[in-house]
Specification:
Blueprint (H helix, E strand, L loop, with lengths): L1 H13 L4 H17 L9 H9 L1 H13 L4 H9 L1 H6 L3 H13 L5 H18 L2 H18 L2 H17 L3 H17 L3 H17 L6 H14 L18
Helix pairs in contact: 2-4, 2-5, 5-7, 5-8, 7-8, 8-9, 8-10, 9-10, 10-11, 10-12, 11-12, 12-13
Length: 243
């Protein structure tokens, strides 16, 4: 029944003089839903749940914007929401949307860098390091000019982790530390947390286990610090101030 009502409403809209204006408003609304994942207070379960509930509307918003030669807001939305596509198991679809943005001829330089950074993050988790590292470096070059510290932080952490995984432990640790320092400078605990995890993994690969447990505890504490206390049933642990 709901499908029938939806089809009827779409047919009425399709013949309406207000069709394009309504679809443009729809696109703006649901691009905003995707953008919200990357903003302060986003990247939490409630925000990810909200996007998953509206995922068909988000897809429609992306499709409409790209079909109307307006890829810039989609590229920004993909960068802001890459956590969602990764965390909720939509990695292949996220990669597809990022690719569609990158292939759009009218895309701007900064949105291109954002879409490229998102595509690189998906490539990291797919094991496609040959694409990921150069893409991250290219995106970071633009981000350095524009002052986009979040892209710089993730580029250093992700590229550093790849270097650690592929044997360049010292170079990898240096890059990850830069990324963590960037996140700390902008008070982004959710960005810093995977940085500490990446440091622990890199040390483990090099069989340097002295600090690896402490780094994981630190990552857990940073992640919990970023989540509203009302979502926790028990007191949150705190990292010692002397660390």
């Amino acid at each position: 029944m709901l499908s029938t009502i939806r089809q009827f409403a779409w047919e009425r809209l399709d013949t309406s003089a207000r069709r394009d204006a309504v679809l443009a408003r729809h696109a703006r609304t649901f691009l905003e839903v995707a953008d919200s994942v990357g903003r302060p207070g986003g990247r939490h379960r409630m925000t990810l749940d909200a996007m998953e509930i509206e995922l068909d509307n988000v897809r429609q918003a992306f499709t409409w914007s790209l079909a109307n030669d307006d890829p810039d807001p989609v590229a920004t939305a993909m960068w802001e929401s890459w956590w969602f596509w990764w965390m909720r198991g939509y990695l292949s679809e996220g990669r597809l949307w990022a690719d569609r943005c990158l292939e759009a001829p009218p895309i701007g330089r900064e949105p291109h860098a954002r879409a490229l950074a998102a595509r690189a993050m998906f490539a990291i988790w797919s094991g496609d390091y040959e694409f990921a590292v150069p893409a991250l470096m290219e995106a970071a070059g633009v981000a350095r000019e524009t002052g986009d510290d979040r892209i710089l932080g993730y580029a250093d952490v992700a590229a550093g982790l790849v270097r650690g995984l592929t044997g360049a432990t010292d170079d990898g640790m240096d890059a990850i530390r830069r990324g963590v320092a960037t996140f700390e400078a902008i008070s982004d605990d959710i960005g810093a947390a995977p940085g500490f995890v990446a440091m622990s993994w890199t040390q483990g690969i090099a069989r340097q286990f002295e600090d690896s447990d402490e780094l994981l505890v630190r990552a857990l504490c940073r992640a919990r610090e970023s989540i509203p206390s009302s979502t926790w049933a028990s007191p949150r642990p705190r990292w010692p101030s002397t660390a």
